[in-house]
Amino acid sequence: MLLANSRILFLAALFILPLLALIVMYNGHVSRRNAVEYAFSSIDVQLKKRWDLIPRLVETAKGYAKHEKEVFERVIEARAQAQSARGDERFRREGEVSQELPRLIALGERYPELKSDAQFLNLQRNLTEIESQISAARRAYNAAITEYNDGVQMFPSSLVAGMFGFKRREWFQIEASETEVKSV
C-alpha cells in the first residue's frame, strides 16, 4: 500500500511540476508583454503632448517669420504623418518630426523679436522638456522590449513562447539621419 501511494505521488509530481513550470513561464511572458505595452503607451502620452504643442509653437513663430513658410509646412506635415502612422512606421515618422523641430526652434535665432517673445520661449522650454520625457520613455520601452525578448528567446521559456505565439519585438530605434548634426 505504501509503495502504491508513493507511486501515485511520484506520478502526480511528474505531471504537476511541469504544469506549474508551464504556468509560471506563461505568466512571465504575459507580464513582460504587458510591460512592453505599458511602456509604448507612455511614449504615446509624451508624443501627444508634443503633437499638441507643435501647432502652438508654429503659430507663434508664424507671426514673426511670415516668409519661413517652408519650415512651418514641413513641421506640420511631419506631425500629421506621425499621428496617422502605426507600428514600426510610426517610429520612423516620429524621427522625421524630431528632425524638423530644430529648424523651427532655430527661427528664434534669426528673428530676435521672436527669440524674446515670452510665449515662444515658454513653448520652446516646454518642447525641450517634452523631448527629454520622450527620450526617457523610449529608453523605458527599449528596456521592456529587451526583457520581453530575453523571455521569448531564452531556453526553456522559448518553448512556451513558441507554443503560445509570443514573438520577438523590435526596439524603438532612431534613424541614422537623426544622429547627424543638423544645419539649421
Structural summary, described in words:
This protein is an all-alpha fold and 184 residues long. It has a domain at 50-139. Helices cover 82% and strands 0% of the residues. The chain is built from six helices and no strands. It is rod-shaped, with a radius of gyration of 25 Å. The termini are far apart. The relative contact order is 0.14.
What distance lies between the first and last C-alpha atoms, to the nearest angstrom?
87 Å
Number of distinct beta strands: 0
Low-confidence stretches: none
The pLDDT mean sits at 86
Shape call: rod-shaped
| Fraction of helical residues | over 70%
Helices and strands, in N-to-C order?
Answer: HHHHHH
Structural class: mainly alpha
Strand content: under 5%
| Radius of gyration from the alpha-carbon trace, in angstroms | 25 Å
Number of helices: 6
Largest sheet: none
Fold topology:
Elements: H1 2-64, H2 69-84, H3 87-110, H4 112-115, H5 118-153, H6 157-164
Helix pairs in contact: 1-2, 1-3, 1-5, 1-6, 2-3
In short:
The protein has 184 residues and is mainly α.
